Amino acid sequence: MVTWNVATAEPPEDVTSLLQLDVQPPTDLYVIGLQEVNATPVRFISDLLAEDSWSHIFMDTLAPRGFVKVTSVRMQGLLLLVFAKQFHLPFIRNIQTTYTRTGIFGYWGNKGGVSVRFSFYGHMVCFLNCHLAAHMNYALQRVDEFEYILDMQDFDISDTPHILDHKVVFWFGDLNFRIADHGLHFLRSSITSGRLNLLWNKDQLIMMKKKEQFLQEFEEGPLNFKPTYKFDRNSDTYDTSGKKRKPAWTDRILWRIKPKPLPSEDDDEKASTSTHDEQDEYPILVSQDKYTSDMSYGVSDHKPVIATFSLELRKCFDTQLVHISPVGVWSADQDALLNYTVQEDFMSSTWDWIGLYKVGFKSASDYETFAWVREDDLPETNEVIQISVDKDEIPLLGGQYVLGYYSTNMQSIIGLSANFQILESRRAVMEGLVPENVNGLNK
């Protein structure tokens, strides 16, 4: 996970260090929350029509490594992106996004929260990226804004209509909590000498957690990295401007595991036992492996904060909703066939479609071609359905591809074939066509 207030800057050329790509074991999910993405009216409208520059660099960096953008949500300067390894896609279901503007102090829209929720192998998880009110003396308002976001956001899912109904919630962003009471000289000397622990008891979020019951349910790792705000741009030097802002841990990543319900006195014994059995049968354990910042990035006056987590969970299911496979050998010399079978009943639609993706694809919309599923009536479970793909739609040069079934109602790819080879066509050989480099892959 990454949180970064980018202060309207354009992205750096290289985000390898930011994503810890060279230093950590293989990752399954990336969740990236940005604040203050350039949101001038012209820029914001252009980003609605096409991906913004930050989304582009993350997709261009992660796609060659087998990560696909699951979804994203944007509210003016707030941006939240979720990526997953390709093989996880069919098990990420019921994706929903929403956002909440906080209007305190008249700042409509530039502060608030954006969230993504989905079912991951049957476990309900929610990611909430916030940008809360600024300035030292607004700690209480920040808590109020967070409560307001929790109250206002709802999802069209019966068992998890609100953020705190999810089994695991990650809350992160520029939460804007400051270090109270200490003077600038004491702050800077404590940071320089590495005695960060002297500042913890005056960190406003830590102080607020002691007072507010609902905040105590959120866990956070120790703040063993330097405060990430406020820096002179392109430097490791804290603010030398006339304002001389005090350093602060404004940028944070916390998590919450849903507490087990306490049995009420009215429950009969059997009901309370079944509730606990259901909770315990599929537990989810969260442990934080890393919580740090990356001082090497200087495009913003904030430094990015990075956390890595291990999620230990028992899969509630491991079968794709739709089984899909190519039939025979594919090349652009002839029409091709594919089979698909609905393996489990779901809310299918005649607007569902099957995409042909080059391995290393960036998102569900990054297909070479697609075919609508059968239009006349919806398939029965376990019925094998065959679809023809016109040879003119098949890539001439061939390469490694995968088929994906996209569910319009679930907003996600719910079935993936194994990777397969499309052969180079006779026309490509005759015309001497040369493979292009797609998403960093040349196949």
From TrEMBL:
Residues 260-279 are annotated as: Disordered. SMART domains: IPPc (SM00128). It holds the Pfam family Exo_endo_phos2. Residues 2-317 form the Inositol polyphosphate-related phosphatase domain. CDD domains: INPP5c_INPP5J-like. Belongs to the inositol 1,4,5-trisphosphate 5-phosphatase type II family. This is Inositol polyphosphate 5-phosphatase K. It comes from Lates calcarifer.
